[in-house]
Amino acid sequence: MITILELTTCHLEQAAPLFASFRSTLRRFKNRMVEPDLEEGREEFAYFLEEKFPVYGAFVEHNLVGYIVCKVEGSLVWVEQIFVSELARKQGIATALFQRAERLSQFLGGETLFHYVHPNNHGMIAFLRKQGYTVLNLIEVRKPFEGEELTRTIQVGDETFDY
């Protein structure tokens, strides 16, 4: 059975490995292989709590196996992060976390959640589609990082972007 609870500072040591794994996974989308950094995970979890971001955790048999971080701006709720440990995937945990965030949005008067998703994160894009999220809202554009090799382009409507 999955139990969803709002996380607090007492969950720091359970949450840190998941937050560290999330960061490591994101870096892999840009071909940067970095081992999870527990201290970075602790700092990031603490930051979200200090800044009063709602952070919900999914527990299975008292073990924290996933989390979702929400950023609230009035009635808008952004999913800053959602992560489920590799061994606990495909068991409805992400869906349960996502539904908790949707309830928060509805409680605040919102109609939808908003997400930033890395274009290489095909798993998350498929998950969002399954949840009914199919509208491209905004495009994040930046200058290339020093030394960054961009090998592809992406077409969005009439516009072409380096990727």
From TrEMBL:
Keywords: Transferase. Residues 2-155 form the N-acetyltransferase domain. The keyword Transferase applies. Pfam families: Acetyltransf_1 (PF00583). It comes from the Bacteria. GO terms for molecular function: acyltransferase activity, transferring groups other than amino-acyl groups. SUPFAM superfamilies: Acyl-CoA N-acyltransferases (Nat). InterPro entries: Acyl_CoA_acyltransferase (IPR016181), GNAT_dom (IPR000182). PROSITE patterns: GNAT. The keyword Transferase applies. This is GNAT family N-acetyltransferase. It comes from Streptococcus hillyeri. The lineage of its organism: Bacteria, Bacillati, Bacillota, Bacilli, Lactobacillales.
